[in-house]
Amino acid sequence: MKATDFYYHLFGLRLSAPFPCPELPPAQGDRTDVTVTWGALSHPWHRPSTELRFHAEPRRILLRHDGVGSMLVCDGNRIVIDPDPAADQRVIRLFLLGSGMGAILQQRRVLTLHASAVVCGSGAVLFLGSSGVGKSTTAAAFQKRGFAMLTDDLCAVHQTREGRAYLHPGFPQIKLWPDSVRALGLTGEKAYPLHARIPKVAFGLSGPFPNGPTPIHHLVALVSTETGPPVVDRLTTLERLRVLQKHTYRRAFISGPCATKNHLNACARLAKAAPMTLFIRKKRPFRPDATVQHIIDQLHLEPDTHRELETPSRSMPG
C-alpha cells in the first residue's frame, strides 16, 4: 500500500488512485480491483478535436480528450492517465469516472448501461434514454420524493447464472443541466461546474446512499416528443433487447467478436429478467415532478424504508 494512494469503492469495485477523488466513498484496506496511475502515453491523433476519440482492442482501449489528456484502460483492472498540462483535476476525474470506468466495466464483461437509477421498495428502477432526455433529472426528482439514488448516467448490471440481475451503486453525485436545476428547485443548493465548456453542474448527494447490490425491479425507457400527451406502454422482450442495445454506455468501446457476443447475451438475459416500460413525455415544458408522479402511479412504486444505507461524509470536489 502506497502512502500516496487513495482507495475508494464504486460499481462493486475497489479502486486505488494517486490523487484524491472526493466524489467517491472511501474504502478501507489496500485490496484493489482497479489501479489508476499516471504515465506517459502516445496517441495517433494529430488534429485537435473537442470530441472524445478512442482506439479499441479486445482487452485495451486508448481514449483521448483534448484539453483533458489521454487514458489507457487495460484488462479490466488498470488505468493509465496522461493529463494535458493545463488539465484541471476536476475534469480529469470526470474523464476517469465516466469513460474510464465505463471501459473498465465492459472489459470485465459487466453490462454497462447509459442510465440513472433509484431504489424503490421492490428493488432498483433504471431510467434509460438518449442524452438530454431527462434520465438524471427524473432520478433527482425521485430522490426528492424519498427514493434513494443508486447511480447517475452509468449503470453497472451484474447478472447471476440463475438469471437474476443486480445493480451496484455508483457514487453519490448527480449531474444536471441548468434548466433541470431550475425545474427541480435546486437553485439554492451547493453545486460545482463540471467543465469550462459544459454548463452542466454536479451536486454531491448528502442523504443516505446504498452500500450494496440491489436487485433490478423495473426498467423505464424515457423518450421525449414535441407534441402529444404522455404515453405509457409495456415493451415486449424483443423490444427490451433493442432498447438495451441502443442505450449501452459507450457501446462503441466493445471490440472483438467475443466481447460483442457477450454483450448481446447480457442484454438478452436482462431483457428476459426485468420488465420495461416505455414512457413518452412532452419535451417542453419538462415538468419532472409530474413525470415522476405519472411513473409512480403507473408502476405502483414506493420508497424503500428498510434498506441499509450509509450517509456520505465527504467534502465537495475541488
From TrEMBL:
InterPro entries: P-loop_NTPase
SUPFAM superfamilies linked to this entry: PEP carboxykinase-like
Gene3D superfamilies named among the record's database cross-references: P-loop containing nucleotide triphosphate hydrolases (3.40.50.300)
Protein name: Hpr(Ser) kinase/phosphatase
Organism: Sulfidibacter corallicola
